User: Which sequence fits this backbone?
């Protein structure tokens, strides 16, 4: 029977990582393709994961003093053009509404690729005095960016995200906000998704269109490639001046505000899959798992088995655990592999023999380890502790993988070999010149992921040009 | 001082209801206009009300077995055309994307006005067997319908809503779903928003494009006009046949599914404003109020006053009450009118003299009644009970207003006078002919809101044509 457990085998992760990824997305029923190229359907299981991420982040946003708003989905082309760098960055990937109510529009409307311009226009209207500051708004929505090649969750013509937009009276406060929100993303990845990160600043080449500084969180996938998973931008007064966002300060002078924005998206779903998944499918960190525990009754037709399963279910549910009993008419083996494909962190098995002994078997999805537990009032707390343990084990494993894939090198010629064999990051000194970044990109198809400003040592040399280095930079091949 | 309490007076509700409405929307900071005509900005206070509605409804959707998903924002024009009635209903008000990534699109894309077609296409793909049924999905999103004349929350080119879409093996189950979701809307209005309703079926003329039957909830506004506030549709097999949504039933036969959809939107914010608001601004039912209690310290510079206010605040917060202290440097009178404009249900005042006595003054926004309460550990429970009382008072008041505005009439000639003087609904027998609806509409600018099928009495006559009546119908002037 073991042979026939899986209804549809998925490609092995090490044989073809890209195909494995797509297989998991489909077979775990996270998404489906729609009839519009590049636009996906978020199926219930995938969307439920996003809801968990939303809840966690939304709570942290509100705790840090942010309020949710909703801006129009369409932006006049003329408004998008107000900030020069910004429009240059986004114009090539816009979807444009040219017809409304059967009439041609005079000023075509862009489906929002991001909403800096709308927030700036609104802030210019409602901010008058230092008393109105700071304004710290966030928006949950979908955005459209026309992409040529797309992959589920990683790159799509439409994706779901949050975009925070804040304005402040001082540069210091805006800079602190930028870093604070980067830290909220780090916390989300660590505490909710069990994903360790590299963070730092983006180079001029890689930063957001219109930003003065972009901070990024970068996550290492199992295949050694890197995924940019969230960004936080400090805008200085660029948009403020383009849109006239001014306030009367305490000293009775008109001043421009300082601005930030920050966003994280359904890309995080891709990160969860590619950091933790294995050859049997998804492996979900317990806190983001829509179903944390599945109870599989063995020989469920035998008296008492299903009752026991339901009893355990109720006791766990009462403690806030997201749990369900799989009492479908499939075989236990089939149920096991479905639960594995969906990455459910904990599986509890209960059968006729367990009934007599008052025990159940508890299996961990992340490493397959099984244990027998007594069914008593302490069980829910034990399962909660077990889920924390699983979270920590998954984080530790991902962290070890990350550490094993940061190679320090000062020899430009060996970059290619490192990327081809070890993969992951090359950590190296950098002079700060764009030309050196381009050289790495052209020679090895690796991009700068982020850098730590002024962290180079006294005698560090940029391996690309041989000049004195200023910064430490991370190169990697990326999604 | 009383004279100067308001920073900006609003138009009196009885002088000019339309202007009063707009004033409240703006002055309570629920929304702002954007630079795209017909597209509004949902400001933090307005959006927070919507979040309360979302939480309530989302919980009820999940309790009744629904799952959230997310479908693409853009629909191919060719897909929208698959169901004939549906496309005829929506084509005139579509926003169309004709350019993507700087190229002209071969098949233009419609910004979703509603998503029946996308759900139908998806269901056709994933439903194979009776084991896959029912599928009960819901989506929270924004939709675009190009409107010529727009009003905040009531009619806009973009609005926020939820759309539920379900498919079932039997007609009976689908019909039960349609009614169940109508009931969830009724419950939302009654238990969350303190709004009583008239519900019933829409006539052929007024039903949703593509539906076999539409059930509606209709709310009566203070000015005697009616607002359609949510609809639930039974589709039969119309979309199933157009999209080929079939399943293999237990009897081994291929059958078409039965389908429903149901939606409620940010129109509900308009209903809250127009049912409960008064000349001092919003009046919010406590359960939907983003801030349920505001504590205003009197002479807050006096020792102990602010401490006491904060202490009360913490004790209420600990019981889950949404409360804040207004410790800004404005005068108490100013704070009172701000809280009134925003409709905060309960205001607590605490000043130096109250300190000595260990009491506070508690004022109700809905009727201005004040009471003195002892500050002790029982205070939070008393405030919770008071909020329930306020909810019930507001519902009772709205219900009395509704009952006083249903006029039974069997004389076509007096319809106009009733609508001009009493307003509200005319309840009357109806033969079932479209021509009679049109006659009422043309003579009195009133539309049929809903009808109760086969509820006419034996000798009831349709007042429009004099023929035998079948149904009871409600006519009203509507938003």
Assistant:
């Amino acid at each position: 029977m073991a042979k026939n457990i899986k209804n549809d085998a998925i490609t092995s992760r090490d044989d073809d990582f890209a195909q494995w990824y797509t297989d998991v997305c489909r077979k775990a029923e996270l998404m489906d393709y729609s009839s519009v190229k590049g636009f996906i359907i978020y199926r219930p299981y995938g969307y439920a994961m996003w809801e968990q991420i939303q809840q966690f982040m939304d709570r942290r946003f509100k705790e840090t003093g942010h309020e949710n708003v909703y801006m129009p989905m369409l932006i006049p082309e003329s408004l998008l053009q107000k900030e020069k760098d910004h429009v240059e960055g986004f114009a090539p990937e816009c979807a444009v509404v040219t017809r409304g109510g059967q009439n041609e529009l005079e000023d075509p409307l862009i489906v929002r690729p991001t909403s800096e311009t709308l927030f700036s226009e609104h802030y210019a209207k409602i901010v008058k005095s230092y008393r109105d500051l700071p304004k710290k708004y966030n928006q949950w929505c979908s955005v459209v960016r026309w992409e040529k090649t797309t992959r589920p969750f990683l790159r799509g013509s439409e994706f779901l995200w949050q975009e925070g937009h804040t304005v402040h009276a001082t540069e210091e406060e805006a800079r602190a906000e930028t870093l604070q929100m980067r830290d909220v993303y780090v916390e989300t990845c660590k505490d909710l998704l069990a994903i360790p990160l590299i963070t730092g600043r983006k180079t001029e080449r890689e930063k957001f269109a219109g930003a003065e500084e972009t901070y990024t969180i970068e996550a290492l996938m199992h295949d050694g490639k890197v995924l940019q998973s969230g960004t936080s931008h400090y805008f200085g007064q660029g948009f403020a001046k383009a849109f006239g966002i001014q306030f009367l300060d305490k000293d009775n002078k008109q001043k421009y505000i300082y601005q930030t924005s920050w966003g994280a998206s359904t890309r995080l779903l891709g990160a969860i899959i590619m950091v933790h998944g294995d050859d049997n499918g998804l492996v979900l960190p317990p806190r983001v798992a829509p179903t944390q525990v599945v109870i599989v009754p063995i020989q469920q037709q035998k008296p008492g088995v299903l009752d026991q399963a339901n009893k355990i279910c109720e006791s766990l549910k009462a403690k806030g655990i997201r749990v369900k009993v799989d009492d479908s008419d499939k075989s236990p083996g089939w149920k096991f592999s479905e639960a594995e494909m969906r990455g459910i962190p904990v599986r509890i098995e209960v059968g006729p023999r367990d009934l007599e002994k008052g025990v159940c078997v508890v299996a961990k999805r992340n490493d397959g380890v099984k244990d027998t537990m007594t069914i008593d009032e302490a069980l829910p707390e034990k399962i909660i502790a077990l889920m924390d343990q699983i979270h920590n084990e998954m984080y530790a494993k991902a962290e070890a993988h990350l550490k094993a894939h940061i190679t320090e090198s000062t020899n430009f010629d060996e970059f290619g070999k490192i990327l081809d064999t070890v993969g992951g990051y090359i950590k190296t000194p950098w002079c700060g010149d764009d030309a050196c970044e381009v050289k790495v990109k052209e020679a090895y198809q690796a991009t700068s992921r982020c850098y730590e400003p002024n962290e180079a040592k006294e005698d560090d040399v940029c391996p690309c040009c041989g000049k004195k280095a200023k910064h430490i930079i991370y190169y990697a091949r990326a999604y």
The first helix of chain A runs from residue 17 to 27. Confidence is low (pLDDT under 50) at residues 1-7 of chain A. The longest strand of chain A covers residues 158-168.
